[in-house]
Amino acid sequence: MIFSSEESLLIESKFEKIQLKKGDILLRAQETVYNQYYVQSGCLRTYFIDTIGKEHTLQFAINDWWISDFTAFFTTSSSILNIECIQDATLYKISKKDLDSLFLRIPKLDTFFRKN
Q1: Number of helices followed by number of strands (H, E) in the chain
Q2: Contact in structure between 29 and 81 (CB atoms under 8 Å)
C-alpha cells in the first residue's frame, strides 16, 4: 500500500517506539488493553494461565508481526492474556484512540487493517 508523504508522517506520529528486555512483561491478565504493538525486532509470547495455574502459550510474535490481546483491545476491556518478552525487542505501540483516528483520516488504512 502506498501512502502520501503527509499520510506517512501522520501514521508515524501516532506510534511510540518502546524497548523491552528478555523477561519483561508487556501485558498482564486483568489489565485494560489500550494498545496494540508492532514487533520490529525480537520475540514475544502470548499466554494464559488456567484455573490450576498452568501456562498455555497461544502465540509467538516475531519480526514484522502484531501482538496484543486483540479482543480486549477492540472492546477496551480487561485482558485474559499475558504477553512476555522472550528475546530483547523493539516495538511500536499505538492506542485504539489513535488507530481509530487514523482510520477516519486515512480510509485506505482502515481497509488495509480490516481486510489483511
Answers
A1: 4, 6
A2: yes
What pLDDT score was predicted for residue 105?
A: 94
pLDDT, residue 116, reads 56
HSE-CB for 105 with a 13 A CA cutoff: 15
The dihedral over CA atoms of 66, 37, 20, 88, expressed in degrees to the nearest 10, equals 10
What are the pLDDT digits (tens) for 21-56? 999 999 999 999 999 999 999 999 999 999 999 999
CB atoms closer than 10 angstroms to residue 88: 14
65: cell is 508481526
Specify whether the CB–CB gap between 66 and 59 falls below 8 A: no
Question: 19 pLDDT exceeds 70?
Answer: yes
For the record, the C-alpha cell of 47 comes out as 499466554
- Report how far residue 86's alpha carbon sits from residue 66's, in angstroms, rounded to the nearest whole number: 15
The cell numbers describing 66, all together, are: 502484531
